[in-house]
Amino acid sequence: MTAVTISRWQRTAWQARRLVTAYNNNLSLFQKYLTTLAAAVFLVSGWWAVSSWSSLFAEAYQGKTLALADYRLVGEPIELQIMTYNASGLTYNRDTDSLFAVANNPPYVVEMDKQGQELRKIPLEGFDDTEGMVFLGNGRYAIIEEDHRSVVIVGIDAETTTLNRANGRSVSFPLTQKNNKGFEGVAYNAADQSLYVVNERQPREIYRIAGAVDPDALSFSITTPWSMEDNSLGNSDLSGLHFDQGTGHLLVLSDESKALTETTTDGRKVSRLSLSDSGAGFGESVPQAEGVTMDDDGMLYILSEPNLLYRLAPPQAPVAAKSSENPVSASKNQAKSG
Questions:
Q1: Together in a domain, 185 and 45
Q2: How many domains does one find in the chain?
Q3: Do 184 and 200 touch, CB atoms closer than 8 A?
């Protein structure tokens, strides 16, 4: 007779089947029906719970990241014709559906449409080293001056031809002074009317300013949400900033690191876009990224010195942006300035 070897798991399965069979044999027909019904209800409930949790998780996660790595360049970089040098900050005005860019030396503002067609130039009188600007709503903007560590609140409407600093509302902050290493970018959180400002280096820092936007505020406060020197998000310098109202996240631009980083306001990195990644459509690295903003369709705009505008579309772009009439290779504009 041939011996049959039974493994431990086979023995366990056989014993379990014996117990189930014995249990079923002792049940009445009604009890068997109730057992089958309970098992079916358990399976359906489990499926519903898993589906519901999956749906809730997807709903909670939806919109919580801009997934910057999925953005793709639209067309070639646009060479601006009026803003020929020292392009710095960039912002989007949803009321006019146009972009506003600021140059730092000499200081002036240029309004353009979202295809990079420049509409007008507004000289800035009395300003010094203007590195960034952000739209606040109702025709108001905040413009920052690098070396003075100043924020100036001004008004721009369709009739504005010049801006005088003396007519604005300004506040300066007594922060560490390093020439040409100060305020570089500014962003606005409309929910609590706070400003975020990046300091380029020495130290690399993000400041949150409360009270500067409110015309009735009697005092201002400035805090650091986290230490960029301890947690730089992989950026060797900071050159621009944007606050996304939908996610509540900051977009931190770095010229030297050739990157745009999405982060929470307490410094947790969410996503990142390389500004030299051919996969995103960059044939050549962005020469000197200085400004960043986003429109209400999720289109991303990056401004680079001396005078290049880059447009990037999200994965689900509603409408393809039009090509520029003035495309240019980035290699034609490699000038670097302070």
A1: no
A2: 2
A3: yes
The residue range of the domain holding 308 is 71-332
Q: Let me know if residue 26 belongs to a domain.
A: yes
CB contact at 8 A, 162 and 123: yes
Provide φ and ψ at 25, rounded to 5°: -65, -25
> DSSP label at 320?
P
pLDDT, residue 148, reads: 84
Q: How many CB atoms lie within 10 A of CB 216?
A: 5
Judged by DSSP in three states, 316 sits in coil
Give the length of the chain. Answer: 338
Low-confidence ranges of the chain (pLDDT < 50): 1-4, 47, 49-62, 318-338
206/316 same-domain check: yes
- State the amino acid at position 116 in one-letter form: G
Burial class (CB in 10 A: 0-12, 13-18, 19+), 58: exposed
* Kind of pairing between the strands at 140-145 and 130-137: antiparallel
Whole-angstrom CA distances from 288 to 74, 82, 307, 309 are 19, 18, 10, 11
206 is a domain residue: yes
DSSP assignment of 126-183 equals S--SEEEEEEEETTEEEEEETTTTEEEEEE--TT---EEGGGSEEEE------TT-SE
